[in-house]
Amino acid sequence: MSRTIKISIMLAVLLVAVFVVVQAAPWLWMQIRPDPAAKVIGAGFQPRHGESPDQDLAILLEGIRSRHNLPALAAAAIGGGKVIAMAAVGARRAGGAEAVTVDDRFHLGSDTKAMTATLIAILGTEGKLSWSATVGEVFGETIKDMDAAWRPVTLSSCFVTGEALRGI
User: Fold this and answer.
1) Domain-by-domain residue ranges, the chain?
2) Which element (helix H / strand E) includes 87?
3) Is the dihedral of CA 5, 11, 16, 19 positive or negative?
């Protein structure tokens, strides 16, 4: 397996984790703070909540799914190393009647750059990683036989169009 593929796979795994966290963040945020709409609408405002965290997440996902005309959507909220909530909404096929379940498999495509960027940003706010860090600094110990051309490339450079990395 080439070094480029190894690095791409490591970044993809990182992005998948970030994607799940980012997608669940609004729901989690609403669980720990009062709904600001209640102040605007008045004391009689009743937010839609299910009978469990799974149902709360399903309500959130259904709003996103229907707003973006998606056939199905699934997510899990993780906290303290445990699943806090898990839900799936929609149909297995666009226009189909068979409901999707949390046990169904979903294809994750074209998410790696956005998810990796989000993870790096989170790690940056925690002071654990910097956009100016180089691939060699981050993966040098992990990938001993890394192509020397990749070592000085900054993480921020990895998020520009492919043209910027053509010579590597």
Assistant:
1) 3-106
2) strand 82-90
3) negative
